[in-house]
Amino acid sequence: MEFNEEEFKDQFLEKSRFEIVYARHLESTLKENQKRIKALLKEKNVRIKINYDERVVQMSTTSKTRDPYVIIKSKDFITLVCKGVPLQEAERIFDDEISYAMLNIQQLASNKEVFINRRNRLIGPNGDTLKALEMLTKTYILMKSKCVCVIGSFANVLKVEQFVLKVMENYHPVHLLKQLVAKKEVEQCTEKKDMNWKNFVPVVKKKTGGSKQTKRKFNVREGKLFMEMPVRKEDIEMIKMNKRKK
């Protein structure tokens, strides 16, 4: 069911407004695309104002606004633009079938070294992993330092989100891509679509690294905690001599 503005003739009782702060290095991009951004939001009956001194983008509804959700879509659009997403991709968010997600992958790593290694693994050599993921899920993926931005349909955005989370949990991306390919083949096959997918989709296990550490065995004797020590030949001989004397 499509929204028809002609059915709503009265204006809103309250005005909705949002403010979004953008990074300084994106100021030149906003200035270059300012006319296009304002023209696009004007078509949606949303007022926009860019304050370059405070680095804030302000938007609000007008007396002509009839779609109650368009201000939310406009906020998402400006958020994507302020994250460095190209306008052509950010404009897709106005489609009701399109969603987006932003993941802070730095919070998913225990330390900086782990974050860098798994981030590089997620990107892949020459960005091949992300390109393959985009092709399989038909989404747009942007990697910005510690943030991953995904634009696409609701189901595909969820797939990418799960993929990214698993890679940051130390799952190998190549195995996850193979799993996605297998799932896609099963979905397209009418005979296997309603069957149990466990027989067709490979199971991906988490990669475990590092050397195995031997656990120290502790025994409790006479209320004291001590560690078992290796028995020496000298100790055995001393025990035998003591037994003979007795």
From TrEMBL:
GO cellular component, one term: small-subunit processome
Coiled coil regions in record: none
Gene Ontology biological process terms from the UniProt entry: endonucleolytic cleavage in ITS1 to separate SSU-rRNA from 5.8S rRNA and LSU-rRNA from tricistronic rRNA transcript (SSU-rRNA, 5.8S rRNA, LSU-rRNA)
All residue ranges annotated as the KRR1 small subunit processome component second KH domain in the record: 100-187
Localization of this protein: Nucleus, Nucleolus
One of the Pfam families matching this protein, by short name: KH_KRR1_1st
Keyword terms of this UniProt record: Nucleus, Ribonucleoprotein, Ribosome biogenesis, RNA-binding, rRNA processing
Major location category of this protein: nucleus
InterPro entries assigned: KH_dom_type_1_sf, KRR1-like_KH1, KRR1-like_KH2, rRNA_assembly_KRR1
KRR1 small subunit processome component first KH domain location: 16-96
GO-annotated molecular function: RNA binding
Family: Belongs to the KRR1 family.
Name listed for the protein in its UniProt record: KRR-R motif-containing protein 1
Taxonomic source organism: Trachipleistophora hominis
